[in-house]
Amino acid sequence: MRSQFLQSPRLSAIGRRGGDPLAALTSTVVFDPSKRSSLAQDSGGTTAVSADGDPVGRMADLKANTYHATQATAASRPTYKADGACHWLAGDGVSDFMSLDWYQTAGNSQSVCFGFSLSAEKTWPFLFGGSVGNRGLEVYGFSGDEDMRALACTTGGAKAVGSGDFILAVNRDVVLTATWDRSTGNMALYRDGVQVATASHPAANLTVAAAHDLFRGLASNTYCLPGRIYRAVLYDGLWSESERAAAEAWVAKNVHTVAYYLGDSTIAAYLGHPSVASLLDSTHAETSLAAPGDTIAGQ
After folding, report:
1. Domain limits at 84?
2. For residues 213 and 19, what is the distance between their CA atoms, to the nearest angstrom?
3. Does 287 lie in the same domain as 151?
């Protein structure tokens, strides 16, 4: 019996080898702290990040579109962290954040995908928000560490989508995706590749351009996120199903998601979690596995 997840398009996208996965992404902005050469301690990019614990004042956009994230204030810079398996930026939830120029076109749809986790409970922590109030497509925590939501801030008002099914526990790594279809007003929220919430609103343009913040929203440190950002893919358009799956698969490569499920160690526990493919070689990724309940290790 083939696992439902292991025959899904998500696994096929992750399991294939060869080529440049970054170049293949449908994206406008890409951030990856595991590429340490893309990080600098200062906003001007003159002092390289060389070790765990260094401050990060600049994170380069790997798509070379000049949408680099920067922080000129030393006391507000996130910290580069690594544990031998993954790399991330850590925000203190007090004043740490980074800003990048507005990349979202007012008349376009929008898609964003983050690998992240929350390190402490906090009301209304923003993972990705506007630097001047609400701007564009954003993602945030609605009530402490409970309900993750996305917000499309448009000329027709702020349109939110969220679900109580998207519970984000402290220190629980996830791959979060939010999409907004400009033509229909439809929004969707995905957790580890699985859709958890949808909403439909009349279509409208995004609000006027302003910079975006990572780790902060509403232009206030009150809404800084205490947590980690592992990778991010931002797109000035609407992803197809295959494009979204490819973005999630790439983000998942630098996220600890699998480690949080090894306590169960059954295939059934991995259903819907794209980073499971990192445990499988390309041969196993394309062949039938045993029934759910058999261990991944046994494969």
Report:
1. 27-239
2. 32
3. no
